[in-house]
């Protein structure tokens, strides 16, 4: 019987241990689990989260701390399911950073946040910003520390295909790398997509920018009493806007032009 193989990753104060006896699953782990972070021996420390993958007749069962969390049918869906399982397991356990649902890129030494719920078009806009020269922070979560600095969440970008299915893609595919240092918040842009909308931005007060972050915070984190002050420190460094955008390529160009004109 094949023996389990795996590794551990230290991410945001948590140790995640991964194991599997399936070569295809091990390849998916190597490729998609925080590829910019170093690996260590999975038996070296007691992990905060243990994720194990079993393969039976082409179905991959993903177990978190001994309980089945998801099933991926075929290798082509394994990466996506693995990323989602890690997101759910990790975000709820991070104790020193606070998450916002937001696309995030680094530009001119500061972070640009695009708050929005899942399926709101964050990933497509992040991809186009990367193609314009921004550095990658996240396409789903921006992490804010107690000083108000923005940390990246360097999972692969989830790209939507023509059939609405998402596939993971590494940021290097778009000619950039993941930013690896905390950054001050530079801009918050709460943009709504409309195929008929013209590019439009309206300045927000910092209190309105703070509300845009709080409205896109995972529910359990939003109830923590300290989060308003922490987010307030982050927003205090930022210029805040709301508006509309249509095509992601055009919007990315307009966003960076706007930022550079304002500076």
The total domain count is 2
**What's the CATH C level of the largest domain?**
Alpha Beta
Could you list the spans in which at least 5 consecutive residues all have pLDDT below 50? none
Distance between the termini: 62 Å
How is the main sheet built?
A: 8 strands, mixed
Notes on the protein architecture:
The strands form three sheets. Strands 7, 8, 9, 10, 11, 14, 15 and 16 form an eight-stranded mixed β-sheet that branches. Strands 3-1-2-4-5-6 form a six-stranded mixed β-sheet, covered by helices on one side. A two-stranded antiparallel sheet has the order 12-13. The N and C termini lie far apart (62 Å). With 263 residues, the chain is an alpha+beta fold. The protein folds into two domains: 5-91, no CATH class; 98-262, Phosphoenolpyruvate Carboxykinase, domain 3. The protein has helices at residues 23-32, 75-91, 122-131, 206-214, 219-222, 227-235, 248-262, and strands at 5-11, 14-20, 39-40, 49-56, 59-64, 67-73, 98-107, 110-115, 135-138, 141-144, 150-151, 157-160, 166-169, 185-193, 200-204, 239-245.
